[in-house]
Amino acid sequence: MYYFALLLGPESTSAPDPDEAAAEMAAYQAFHAKAATAIRAGDALTPSTTGARITGGPDAPTVTDGPFAESAEVAGGYYVFEAENLDEALALARDIPAAKRGAVEIWPIVEYFPPSKPVGNAWLALLLEPADKAVAPGTPEWEAGIAAHQKFGAAAGDRTNGGAPLHPPSTATTVRVRDGEVLLTDGPYVEGAEVANGYYIIDVGDRDEAVKVASMIPSTTVELRQLMGVSGL
Q: Is residue 41 pLDDT above 90, yes or no?
């Protein structure tokens, strides 16, 4: 099975301390070495100040430039894991450095569409929906949504490079590590009214084109963030 891990944490508004940044990088390198056989994709995200949030759907999109954080923790990166079951995915999540200072949301993936070409500095389009609007796979509402996304895929063409729909928020688990103790919470880490519903990788040349493509996605809200291209995945 495949699992989507969304890394959440406080976003610094000042230049990072060089020693702290080096220690953080070393921690992630150690995690990658340990979890290499399970990691299928992932990267860090550039600051939310460089991102955008698109609301209103394809018919009437409204673009808001970042920062757009409504909580103390914002998305700082993501992974896709291949694991036998949820317990194995949670064991991977607890070793992610972000779990020690923030949280990691683990979502079961309905169907994983891996990138067909190197990702580099592409864009992560995180699809967000109100928690009470989430639908389960196999329902008529789900099938209608799939049809809308197929229409988007045809229009976007090779400007998308992988992605995945996620199971409803009732299947998510939030992982935190505090003082060496693993804390698990059922459901996503939610301070606002919207939860993750899926994601696309948008592979285009510039931010304006990324916003244009993301505005076509049939989703209540799309959070658009550029990948840092530092993972080597």
A: yes
Question: What does pTM read for this prediction?
Answer: 0.94
Tokens of 43: 């990267």
Exposed, middle or buried: residue 26 (CB in 10 Å: 0-12, 13-18, 19+)?
exposed
Pairing state of beta strands 2-9 and 103-108? antiparallel
- Mean pLDDT computed over every residue of the chain: 92
- Largest Cα span, the chain: 53
- What domains are there in the chain, each with its CATH number? 2-226 (3.30.70.1060)
Query: In this predicted model, what pLDDT tens digit does every residue of 46-79 receive, in sequence order?
Result: 999 999 999 999 999 999 998 876 666 789 999 9
Is pLDDT above 70 for 85?
A: yes
Q: Return left, alpha or beta for 98; rule: phi > 0 is left, psi -120 to 50 is alpha, else beta.
A: alpha
The confidence score (pLDDT) of residue 191 equals: 61
Q: Which amino acid is at 155?
A: A
Is the distance from CB of 7 to CB of 96 less than 8 angstroms? Answer: yes
Q: How many CB atoms lie within 10 A of CB 230?
A: 12
Per cent of the chain over pLDDT 90 is: 78
Beta-strand (E) ranges in the chain?
Answer: 2-9, 39-44, 52-55, 62-65, 74-82, 103-108, 123-130, 160-165, 173-178, 181-186, 194-202, 221-226
Q: Name the residue with tokens 């084109």.
A: 209
Close Cβ partners of 5 (under 8 Å, ≥ 6 residues apart) = 42, 78, 79, 80, 81, 89, 92, 93, 96, 104, 105, 106, 107
The pLDDT of residue 70 is: 60
Contact 5, 105 (CB under 8 A): yes
Residue 222 to residue 128: CA distance in whole angstroms: 6
